[in-house]
Amino acid sequence: MKVQQYQQGQPCWLELATHDWAAGKAFYQALFGWGADDMPMPEGHYTMLQIEGDDIAAMYPMPQEMQALPTHWMVYFAVDDVDVTADIVKQAGGQVVAGPHSVGDAGRMALCTDPEGSRFALWQGQDHIGIKRTQEPNTLCWVELACRDTAGAKQFYSQVLGYHTKLADMADFEYTEWYVGEQAVGGMMAMTEEWGDAPAHWMNYFAVEDCDASVVKAKNLGATVCVPATDIPNVGRFSVLNDPQGGFFSIISLVDPTA
Prior knowledge:
Elements: E1 11-18, H1 21-32, E2 35-41, E3 44-51, E4 54-61, E5 72-78, H2 82-91, E6 95-103, E7 107-113, E8 119-125, E9 140-147, H3 150-161, E10 164-167, E11 175-180, E12 183-190, E13 201-207, H4 211-220, E14 224-232, E15 236-242, E16 248-254
Parallel strand pairs: 1-4, 5-8, 9-12, 13-16
Antiparallel strand pairs: 1-5, 2-3, 3-4, 6-7, 7-8, 9-13, 10-11, 11-12, 14-15, 15-16
Helix pairs in contact: 2-3
């Protein structure tokens, strides 16, 4: 489905910051069948990853000042006014790491962290709204916050992005869903002792037609399986993967609600 606009709080863009741009590009193109539009930049290329010419994510090589960070995906949330929202981030106990600043005529952005340190970005689209396709294979379909202070996160993101929340029907653990109006746009789960010292973070999920086949394909391309293909009753079958450079992401084959 083509996307024409985004509402405040909806996940609207993804960027992969990578240590090896060429290898990262080859991996994700092979896994998801994405096309690529490489745009020169001082550090190399900023690549628009595409389906039939429609932008669905981007990637770039990390500049020298970012080399200490691991390869990672960054989720952007749509906002009506990035300057106002950045101020709210600070008022709510988060930090604005970079920006707000304009990205040419494409839009205006800010890079932020929540009170527990999870990184995310704000996007006020102008000529570029963000992801152009959704609800089809190989596109973003869900984002998920893993954190230890779920009560604090509810308060923070409700204040910053205008979310309201609902508890999902999960038998084994508490799972919170983030809502923009009547649409569930993401979720949140509590990090237990089993997570060790892993930092709080946002996870992105890509829809795939066959989770098990995609896991095998990812492994053959050099990925590591962190969580093997697992069923979520009435939702779908998912897996958590690390790309060959350590960038983590999830895939999920969703249950057809009309089936």
